[in-house]
Design a protein that fits this description.
The protein is of the alpha+beta class and 367 residues long. It contains 7 helices and 20 strands. It is globular and about 60 Å long. The chain binds pyridoxal-5'-phosphate.
């Protein structure tokens, strides 16, 4: 049996008969390996999105010539739903993710997904699987919207057919302890001037894997990407934007087309400015970082992103030198930024920017 929501897009809902929820231990969730009961799927053909549905989570089949597998027209988003202290499920700035996936779509010659369909699908899916949102502090329901080219065709051109999917899965804290970084002075991703660094496209991440593996082999957790022209200016880190605190000033690389416009980055810049900090978006070179470190002025380094929220950096390797960073007890800005985002999600800090969107109750009508 399926149900129809009395909403604009008539998303058909087929509920699972076999919930897997009881198999999950919310106190011990391996990141990215546990998936909730349902997923949203909609196909694009003949110039329109057709028959949006929520169905039990499971495999779908694709043709061996599906274009995404060959030419990489594949984009995605990463976002979270969490529960406030009184148990209400909510999103943080969901419309920003809808806008960003459409910006990625434009860059990759893919069709945009109507913003209200994206948001409506999120509400329905998360309302249906709200029992999958872990209540533990620092845990959340991770949400993965994505789209890929589905034409059965060999040849380099934009596909005519696409599949858009959203699935979700409970996750615990991403980086339980501070991370170490190594500045990458040999490889770049596709994030070069005029490239695809400001879009959330699958190929960017594929190109990051080899340097990331080499960084791990040298004992560092993550790569800190530098610009591709001079290997001089800092871009971002793995799946995070990066912030430095130098002599009381908060500095983050400007959005220059080569890095992703992180939604957490934007929230944290706003929060810190509200709190009276000077936050500067500008190019920052590794030389400046070394100089600030040696002068004792590099007070904090942290990454920001949906998965980690704020990940403190314990040390950075630049040009073969390990720069040790101040102890956690001395860090004020990154700690405050994380506390504010967590507090907004928990409902314990006032939402002055209207970023919190409560998940709408699922009003289903049987047919
Ligand atoms: C390359 C990259 N940079 C930065 C971010 C942080 O973006 P957001 O704060 O929107 O999660 C992400 C995560 O999506 C990312 O993949």
């Amino acid at each position: 049996m399926y149900k129809i929501l009395p909403m604009k897009f008539n998303i058909r809902i087929t509920k699972t008969q076999n919930s897997r929820l009881s198999e999950v231990d919310f106190n011990n969730i391996p990141f990215g390996r546990v998936f909730s009961d349902h997923m949203f799927v909609v196909d694009y053909s003949e110039g329109e999105w057709k028959d949006p549905q929520i169905i039990p989570f499971g495999h779908f089949s694709i043709h061996p010539a599906a274009m995404a597998l060959h030419y990489g027209q594949a984009i995605f988003e990463g976002m979270k739903a969490s529960k406030s202290v009184d148990g209400a499920p909510l999103f943080l700035r969901p419309e920003m993710h809808a806008q960003r996936i459409n910006a990625s779509a434009r860059r990759m010659c893919m069709p945009e997904i109507p913003e209200d369909l994206f948001v409506e699908a999120l509400h329905n899916l998360v309302a249906l699987d709200s029992a999958w949102i872990p209540p533990q502090e620092g845990s959340a329901l991770y949400i993965r919207p994505y789209m890929f080219a589905n034409d059965e065709f060999i040849g380099v051109k934009p596909s005519q057919n696409y599949k858009f999917v959203i699935f979700t899965g409970p996750v615990g804290p991403y980086y339980p302890k501070p991370v170490s970084l190594i500045a990458e002075e040999e490889y770049v991703r596709c994030a070069v001037r005029g490239g695809t660094g400001d879009a959330k496209v699958a190929g960017n991440y594929a190109a990051s894997l080899l340097p990331a593996r080499k960084a791990n082999e040298k004992g560092y957790d993550q790569v800190m990407w530098l610009d591709s022209d001079e290997f001089k200016y800092v871009q971002e880190v793995g799946t995070m934007n990066i912030f430095f605190v130098i002599d009381g000033e908060v500095i983050t690389p400007e959005l220059n087309g080569g890095i992703l416009a992180g939604i957490t980055r934007d929230s944290i810049i706003t929060i810190l400015r509200d709190k009276g900090y000077t936050v500067t978006e500008r190019a920052i070179s590794v030389d400046e970082l070394i100089e600030a470190h040696d002068a004792g002025k590099l007070q904090e380094v942290f990454g920001t992103g949906t998965a980690a929220v704020v990940a403190h950096v314990s040390k950075m390797s630049i040009r073969g030198r390990d720069l040790e960073l101040p102890a956690m007890e001395e860090r004020e800005v990154g700690v405050l930024a994380k506390r504010e985002i967590d507090g907004l999600r928990a409902g314990t800090i006032a939402d002055t920017h209207n970023w919190i969107v409560p998940v709408k109750a699922l009003e289903t009508v049987s047919i």
